[in-house]
Structure formats: C-alpha cells, structure tokens
C-alpha cells in the first residue's frame, strides 16, 4: 500500500518527505563504484609506495650502515656517517656551493623569466617564433646543455673569449679554475630553465584580470608603477609555484655538473647531489652517500614546509 502525502495548505509549513530507503540496486551501484575506484587508484598507489617511499626509507636505513657494495651485507654503525659528515670541512664547502647554485639559479631564472614573459606578452611580430625559441633550451637534455656551454666557456675559441675581448679582457678559465667553476654551472643551468619560467609567466600574464588594469590606469598608474603595483602582486601565486619547483629542481641538478666540471676542480663546483653520486659510485661509500642524500631530503622538506606555510600571503583571484 502506497502512502500519499497531502500537499501543504496555505499558511501550513511543508512536511519533509520521508527519506527513501537505500534499495538493493543502489547498494550494488555503490559497491561497483567503490571497486572501480580501488582498481583505478591501486596501481598508482602501489607505484608511489614502491618507487618513491620505499627508496626514501631504505636510503635512511643505509645512512646508518657501512657498506661498499662489495660486502655481502651492510654493517650497522649508528650515527658514525653523520658524525663524519658534519665534522668534515668538505661537506660545508658542498653545502655552500649548493646554496649559491640554487639561490642564484632560482632568483636569476625568476627575474629573467618574468622580464621575457612580460616582453612576449606584447603584440610584436614573430611572437610565436620567439616563444618557441625562448622555450627551446628547456627541451634540451642537461648533458647537451653542458656540452654546449663547454664550448661557449672555452677561453681559447669560445663565445666567452669574444665577449671579454670586446672590453679588452681575457676570458677566465670557467671550468678549470676553482674561482669560476661554480659560476659556470650556475650560468648554464639558469639559461636552461629561463625559457620554462618565461613561458609560465607569459601564460599567467595573459590570464590576469583586465578590469584591474583599467581601474589602475584610470587612477593614473603607468609603466613600471603599473607593473610593480598590479602585475607583480597578481603573479605572486605563479612566483610561489616557480620558486618551489625551482629550488627542488636546482638542488637535484646533476647532468650539467657532470658534463661541465665533474664537481671540480677539487670540490669547488660539487653540490649535494654530486656528492651523493661521488661517495656512492666513485668512493664506494654507500653509508656516507645515503647520509648526504638524507640531509638533502631534509633540507628540501624544510624549505617546502616554510614556503607552504607562507603561501597564504599570496594574492588569490578568480
């Protein structure tokens, strides 16, 4: 027998209809959707656990071991690897190199990329070709970029010799002297990332709200003042994204260092990433390599947490 609910009379509050019981078909549909969700998410979850979290955890375990990849099994030595690391002057030299390389590369690519992105957003001839050429270095492998800059930095017949010759100066030996090697890898890496940052800024500038600019222009804002007061704050979410990804990417750079300087002369251009490789595959000290990798992981984790906590200060707009 079907219950009939009378419509509410004028002045009478509407009575809520009784909720429909969940039918068997509905329960089957929910079960199928749950199984489908599990089937889709499980391979990705398994891949993340196996290829990301497990190597990270195993690396931390190895940092407390002594192993040369020849012995049958690693030997537990506690904090000895960290003690050797933090009492070594070479480690602090590597930390300083990493800070210089990462800081200059991120700031340089942000400043240069914003300037190029702003220029590309203007209506100029051959703008499509220019955008392609600006993005092209980012498509090159790091090893190819290193070889390219190896020729450009050559003090005998490279582009560096011609440039310094314009001012009557002699080109420095970029890749073979400890005073210039860190700047050689920094310049090459910044050049490679510049196109990517410029394209991201260019795309973001195209999507900025035009009504804000029209209101600012009515108030008399022009030129650099318009850029500094309107464009720069509106681009802060993009700048935040590029800063986080830039720091992580620069701290993990390897191929440009390998092809340009090999971390030398000495350890003048060695970063933490290069130290991880050198300790493991040249000195066969897996424990020290794992300890350096753990320090790099903790530094990047700390930087990311600080940046995420300050993300609320960015400008948000729809």
From TrEMBL:
Q: What is the protein's membrane topology class?
A: Multi-pass membrane protein
Please state where this protein is localized: Cell membrane
Keyword field: Cell membrane, Membrane, Transmembrane, Transmembrane helix, Transport
Membrane-spanning residues: 34-54, 99-120, 132-152, 180-202, 234-254, 286-306
Q: Which CDD domains match?
A: TM_PBP2
Quick one: where's region Disordered? 1-27
**Gene Ontology annotations of biological process type:** transmembrane transport
Q: Where is the ABC transmembrane type-1 domain?
A: 95-307
Q: Carries keyword Ion transport?
A: no
Instruction: Give the PROSITE patterns listed for this entry.
Output: ABC_TM1
Report the InterPro entries cross-referenced here: ABC_transporter_permease, MetI-like, MetI-like_sf
One Pfam family from the record: BPD_transp_1
What GO CC annotations are associated with the protein? plasma membrane
Q: Which domain of life is it from?
A: Bacteria
**Family, per entry:** Belongs to the binding-protein-dependent transport system permease family.
Question: What name is this protein filed under?
Answer: Binding-protein-dependent transport systems inner membrane component
Q: What is the source species? A: Beutenbergia cavernae (strain ATCC BAA-8 / DSM 12333 / CCUG 43141 / JCM 11478 / NBRC 16432 / NCIMB 13614 / HKI 0122)
């Amino acid at each position: 027998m079907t219950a009939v609910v009378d419509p509410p009379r004028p002045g009478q509050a509407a009575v809520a209809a009784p909720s429909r019981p969940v039918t068997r078909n509905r329960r089957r549909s929910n079960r199928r959707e749950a199984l489908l969700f599990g089937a889709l998410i499980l391979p990705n979850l398994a891949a993340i656990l196996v290829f990301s979290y497990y190597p990270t955890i195993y690396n931390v375990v190895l940092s407390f071991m002594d192993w040369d990849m020849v012995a049958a099994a690693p030997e537990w030595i506690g904090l000895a690897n960290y003690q050797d690391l933090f009492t070594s002057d070479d480690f602090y030299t590597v930390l300083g190199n990493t800070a210089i390389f990462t800081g200059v590369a991120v700031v340089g690519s942000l400043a240069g990329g914003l300037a190029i992105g702003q220029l590309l957003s203007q209506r100029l001839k051959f703008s499509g070709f220019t955008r392609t050429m600006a993005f092209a270095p980012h498509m090159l492998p790091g090893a190819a970029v290193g070889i390219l800059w190896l020729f450009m930095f050559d003090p005998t017949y490279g582009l560096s010799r011609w440039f310094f010759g314009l001012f009557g100066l002699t080109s420095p030996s970029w890749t073979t002297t400890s005073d210039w090697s860190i700047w050689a890898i920094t310049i090459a890496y910044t050049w490679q990332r510049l196109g990517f940052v410029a394209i991201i800024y260019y795309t973001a500038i195209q999507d900025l709200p035009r009504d804000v600019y029209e209101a600012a222009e009515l108030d008399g804002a022009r030129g650099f003042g318009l850029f500094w007061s309107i464009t720069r704050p509106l681009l802060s979410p993009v700048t935040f994204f590029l800063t986080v990804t830039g720091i992580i990417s620069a701290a993990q750079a390897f191929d440009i260092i390998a092809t340009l300087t090999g971390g030398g002369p000495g350890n003048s251009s060695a970063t933490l990433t290069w130290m991880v490789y050198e300790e493991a595959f040249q000195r066969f000290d897996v424990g020290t390599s794992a300890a350096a990798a753990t320090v790099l992981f903790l530094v990047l984790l700390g930087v990311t947490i600080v940046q995420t906590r300050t993300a609320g200060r960015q400008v948000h707009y729809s």
